[in-house]
Amino acid sequence: MSGSTQLKRVRALHRRKEREEQGLFLVQGRKLVGELLKSSMEVLEIYATADPVREMGLEGGTEPGPEMANTTVSILPAHDLDRMGTLHSGNEVLAVVRIPTATELRLPVVGMFNLALDGVSDPGNLGTLLRIADWFGATQVWCAGGVDPYNPKAVQSSMGSLFRLVPCAVEDLPGALAQAHASKVSVYKAEASGENVFAYGVKKPCILVMGSESHGLSEGVRAAPGISISIPGHGGAESLNVAAAAAALCMEIIRP
Predict the structure, then answer these.
(1) Total number of domains constituting the chain
(2) How far apart are alpha carbons 181 and 184 in whole angstroms?
(3) Among 5, 91, 209, 226, who pairs with 116 as Cys (CB 3.0-4.6 Å)?
């Protein structure tokens, strides 16, 4: 494959339509690619300058692990990697990875929780929310509408959590919440008008639902079964960033 063809194929994955049609996404930078290679994700191609290939043990003579069995490794000049990647700096190694097959939705069991995202539209926030869910031990992350979790910025912001906690696409979030409620799983919806979470006392297993940054929860989710909860404020800020709010609520959920 010629260098120009490689460049076009990889750059096409900057766009959601191409990612969805090809079933592929990008992982960029030494740290993140290193995390990727510890995971079970299928790595198809790696493009890098000579130093990362040598230092990360990606040479042709290195015995590959299971995730590298069908991986091609190409050494390219730095200027080609800069054109392939989306980072402002650090485009010295880039991997093309297969998007995992859809995971079946699972309700959390006793003592556990799921994080449900209702139309989160900022890729940086989405990646951070995946990282928060991973940190606090969520069983699954449900994504309804909003940004593509395989957007390069979302992948980067997840700091590797995307590889451990693969998000689940949900077509009918209100229906999934109704099913959870019917199965005796508590549903908590983050809203500014909700009950003070610290006074209310959350119960697990549960689903924590976070809405979009601009519009909050969708009408269908508002109408679904569940309790609205909020984080009390004592200063003058109008609101919390969705990721900051999720971190505070998850901390309360896992508190003994």
Answers:
(1) 2
(2) 5
(3) 209
Per-residue pLDDT, averaged over 226-252, amounts to 92
| Sheet with 93-98, edge to edge strand ranges | 24-28, 93-98, 43-48, 72-75
Phi/psi zone of residue 196: left (φ > 0), alpha (ψ -120 to 50 degrees), beta?
Answer: beta
Amino acid at 117: L
pLDDT digits (tens, 9 = 90+) for 93-131: 999 999 999 889 999 999 999 999 999 999 999 999 999
Closest CA to 30 of 156, 140, 146: 156
Amino acid at 146: G
Locate tokens 């609101």: which residue? 239
Last residue of a domain, one of 98, 128, 163: 98
Yes or no: say if 68 and 96 are a contact pair by the CB < 8 Å rule: no
Q: Domain limits at 215? A: 113-254
Residue where a domain stops, chosen among 67, 98, 129: 98
List CB contacts of 164: < 8 A, sequence separation 6 or more: 39, 134
Distance CA 187, CA 225 (A): 7
Q: Do 60 and 121 share a domain, yes or no?
A: no
